[in-house]
Design brief:
about 325 residues; alpha+beta; Arc Repressor Mutant, subunit A; 4 domains; 5-stranded antiparallel sheet; 4-stranded antiparallel sheet; elongated; Tscrpt_reg_HTH_DeoR_CS; CBASS_pafABC_assoc_protein
Length: about 325
């Protein structure tokens, strides 16, 4: 049965490739499908016997093709609707889910049903819009237990999980997995434990055991709604340390392109001195000191005043350190 299914999939792939690309040689088809050329010849005989109008053209520019009339047309879709189907998703997230090859096959099947006049427009979408969720200088970590997480979610089976919290404490817990959420390039497991629903960063899951026990998924649970509410509550709970500053013209654009340690609450029109008044928000006072010190004399602190003295002391200790080292 498995062999029959494999051949059926291959025959469909041949049909879609010919519809999408027009003409392909036996060698090109064999390379695309990773089979021997004689296998392609047998497949073509099978397609012909099934009534598919496959034509073999001889000569230097020959190859296999379908009669032009043999194709289905996708109708009823507006331009923005079919464009939305062909905007490439995050390849990294698809790979994490083990769906990248399936997505490519699905895209080929949809494309095969488009009339020739629209196919160029589809390729233009691929060449003009690309979604990349990975971060600069960041290599996505491999999550060993990812397949088990997916299996538990689909089969509604409980997991025994060992998890490392943000404070490095390790806990063990039996959870009922409800869904997976991708935030940027990071995955989070949403799961229930003792009727409390929490989010767990997948990369911090040390080990999982798929249990035989099943659970009943809550009928009223909405993953998107839960994540939106959870995110808002998390942002509200973050500690805040606000600083009023003036920013040198030379670094205004860099400050606008902020990183993970600071948020720009507001940025006013530059003063006569050309320095720009702004309000910055940090999670802690220590992060504020380290961040502002990194810009040396390009950020002037207005409030709180005590932060000036603290950064001055830090800078003085740094100068004293290198003077004692004799490296200046």
């Amino acid at each position: 049965m498995k062999v029959i299914n494999m051949r059926a999939d291959r025959l469909i792939s041949i049909l879609l490739l010919l519809q999408n690309k027009g003409k392909l040689t036996t060698k090109e088809l064999a390379k695309e499908l990773e089979v021997a050329e004689r296998t392609i010849h047998r497949d073509m005989e099978a397609l012909s016997a099934a009534g598919i109008p496959v034509i073999a053209e001889r000569g230097k520019f020959g190859g296999w093709r379908l009669l032009d009339q043999y194709r289905t047309k996708l109708t009823g879709l507006k331009e923005n609707e079919w464009m939305s189907l062909f905007i490439s998703p995050s390849f990294q997230l698809l790979a994490d889910l083990g769906l990248s090859k399936d997505w490519q096959k699905a895209r080929q099947k949809i494309l095969a049903s488009f009339p020739n006049a629209l196919k160029k427009n589809v390729h233009d979408v691929w060449n003009r819009i690309h979604v990349d969720t990975t971060q600069w200088g960041h290599s996505p970590g491999k999550i060993e237990s990812f397949k088990i997480l997916q299996q538990a979610i689909w089969e509604e089976r409980k997991l025994q999980m060992k998890y490392e919290r943000a404070d490095r404490e390790c806990i063990e817990r039996i959870v009922e997995p409800l869904g997976l959420v991708a935030k940027g390039s990071a995955w989070y497991l949403v799961a229930s434990s003792n009727e409390n629903i929490r989010s767990y960063r997948a990369s911090r899951i040390i080990s999982v055991i798929l249990l035989t026990d099943v659970f009943s998924r809550p009928d009223d649970f909405d993953l998107v709604q839960y994540w939106s509410h959870s995110t808002q509550e998390f942002i509200k709970s973050l500690p805040k340390y606000e600083v009023d500053v003036e920013i040198s013209p030379s670094i205004v654009q860099r400050i606008k392109f902020t990183g993970r340690f600071v948020r720009v609450l507001k940025m006013d029109i530059p003063a006569e001195s050309e320095w720009t008044p702004a309000s910055l928000c940090f999670e802690t006072e220590q992060e504020a000191k380290e961040y502002i010190l990194g810009f040396a004399n390009q950020i002037r602190i207005i409030r709180p005043i005590r932060l000036r003295k603290q950064i001055y002391d830090m800078a003085k200790r740094l100068v004293d350190f290198y003077e004692r080292e004799g490296s200046i």
